[in-house]
């Protein structure tokens, strides 16, 4: 009694562990978007492009530099530039020293760069927007890949369940035949044929088990998780499309894809950035004007001299001869801009092709569902008739097993076809990056 009381106390003290909830498709997508290494790398790249925008904007305001150092000469030299005021006391009063220190505070401001600073900032913004669009396109692609893997794994699990049901039915049939052997109703060969069919079902189940392991590994990899030692995944079922999907016309879908597709937006932004870089390359040919404002300090250590002075200067730099460097830079930028425009055309053509292919896949998947549903109804009727014939001694075991096998095959094919339709619809939504 004392032991029972202690066990009861321990049971009350141990917190109840909630059963693991099935993984939903939305949760799988969320994990993949949060943890997928490829998306994480793209986020870092996008952050880098955003920082580059700040870099290019800041260049307009110049920079402040602080320079300083110590100098020891073999002879005594002036520690600062000579001025009229210094000569008032004669040469003897000039600050000559062989050891001195200096410092300077310089503010350098670009006044005219031929538009290079403005265009570089514009190119940086276009590059940042291109990376954002690329990230959005990658998110859409990963979302579809997760949905495809998730639905594929669901399909395998449902097919496995169907084949297990068939195996259970075969085991029941095996028991019935064994009982019939004792009464002389069935021949021993019937029992052997049923056992042979059970072996075939076991082989099919092993194949499905391998597919489930592979599908689980694929899904977990997309979610950025390790599949080592992971148990079979419990998935939340996804609702089927019970009615035929009424799709918009193909031109509407193509137009929507051309408006929504982020990879196309990214290509256009990249083309825009390359066009701007042509202007940047051309701006390098123009004169450059910079404003320098500086405050200098000089110290002569041996003569005890310490002074500060300032200067403001506007500096003009005119490129005269660069042996063709700037000309080749412009040509290079022009080639890159032309290549970027051609990539936009390439992406547009690919988008149109993918939309038409996705629509065709949905239509084929819908037809496959209808065909397999009709085939299942027919197989069910054949199986029912063969069972009646066999029970009444007018049929043979081969016909019955073939009918039952065909029924289970039709059932599994219907399950697969319905999931294939879900995948095809997900693919179409991913292709237009929007709802139907």
Using brief descriptors, characterize the structure shown.
alpha+beta; Outer membrane efflux proteins (OEP); 4-stranded antiparallel β-sheet; 14% strand
Structure characterization notes:
The chain is α+β, with helices and mostly antiparallel strands and 436 residues long. It is 65% helix and 14% strand. A four-stranded antiparallel β-sheet has the order 1-2-3-4, with no helix packed on it. Helix 3 packs antiparallel against helix 4 and helix 6 crosses helix 8. The two termini are 67 Å apart. About 2% of the residues have low confidence.
The mean pLDDT is: 87
Order of helices and strands: HHHEEHHHHEEHH
Q: Judging by the overall fold, what is the CATH architecture of one domain?
A: Up-down Bundle
Uncertain spans? 12-18
- The class by helix and strand makeup works out as alpha+beta
Helix content: 55-70%
CATH class of one domain: Mainly Alpha
Q: CA-to-CA gap between the ends?
A: 67 Å
How would you briefly describe this protein structure?
This protein is an alpha+beta fold and 436 residues long. It contains 9 helices and 4 strands; from the N terminus they run H-H-H-E-E-H-H-H-H-E-E-H-H.
Topology:
Blueprint lengths: L1 H12 L11 H11 L1 H22 L4 E16 L17 E17 L3 H68 L4 H35 L27 H11 L1 H22 L4 E13 L4 E13 L7 H67 L5 H36 L4
Antiparallel strand pairs: 1-2, 2-3, 3-4
